[in-house]
Amino acid sequence: MIDIMSYNFVLKKAGKKFTLKKYNQLNYFNYVSKHKPADKGESKNNKDNFLKSQIRARQNVFDIISCNINNVPDYYGNIQMPKFLTLTFKENITDSKEANLEFTNFNKRLSYHLYSVNKNVLKYICIPEFQKRGAIHFHVLYFNMPYIDFKVIENIWGNGFIFIESVKDNIEDYAKYVAKYINKENSKGESNYDIYLEKDMLNQKRYFCSRGLKRPVVLKLAINNDTYEMILSYLKNFHVDNYTYENEFIGIVEENTYEIKDLKTISILGKTMKNIIRDMHDIYKRKLDINFDKLNEYHILTKYFYPVDENIKSIFIGGTI
After folding, report:
1. How far apart are CA 81 and CA 104, in angstroms?
2. d(CA 39, CA 37)
3. How is 86-136 classified by DSSP, letter by letter?
4. What's the CA gap between 313 and 320, in Å, rounded?
5. Cα gap 210→198, rounded to integer Å
6. Domain boundaries, the chain
7. Do residues 14 and 216 touch, judged by C-beta distance below 8 A?
8. How many whole angstroms from its chain centre is CA 283?
9. How many CB atoms lie within 10 A of CB 129?
10. Which SS3 state, helix, strand or coil, does residue 307 take?
11. pTM for the full model?
């Protein structure tokens, strides 16, 4: 069966940060390009693609940090201040698989030291940094690591020097500080593109995470201009940023960013999303295995953003969760 449903509005929730995107043209779910993709190494736009992937990776890092900072309990259920570490190798380890294995084992040893468990229970996001001479560094933001003495961490690492760096107690500061390592150049001013090309790693992710982190949630809907303007008007007191961009594939996109802590506002926004979803179900005559009357509007933007019903996930979220 061909699903012809389209969307022109995207709401993304990452922690307390809400991003609204409004497209001037319709986008279709399950859209497949008719163009044959280039084989690996065939593309003439490798550098442009690499730089674009960096931009996407930086945004993903921002979203993951927004979702998890001060929001992930430790093994005993306590919230800890985030810790930012840089791990270095005294030996010139150039193989990423070997370095990643050392990092994995370090987290297991650290977890055992902290909690006497034989598995990693620490939650983190890690950005590897490569240098021309081949050295690998790991820049790691731990979301739930309790205080532990600097020398103890260095002994548990056992591979070289470590640095503990202070970051202001602000989500945006943490995100910017961590994401800066996903850049055109490494910390020594060397081209990341050249390094990744030489290592045949252009298609490798620029960051990796521990399991079980909270992820941003995305809701794609079709709305009219009156509804869109109503939402903007209601959220104006929480507005942080706005910009508009355009390309030949998706047309003109207006993006607005908000930081919403007020529970009443979240509840009203959730009720609006609920009504839009109900209308979309009515229009497309799809069976809805959920009782909206019993659904708390407040949980639309929390529980409902992680729907159990696969029909809802495939139709209304386009598989983005």
Report:
1. 22
2. 6
3. EEE-SS----HHHHHHHHHHHHHHHHHHHH--SS----EEEEEEE-TT--E
4. 8
5. 27
6. 66-209
7. yes
8. 32
9. 20
10. coil
11. 0.78
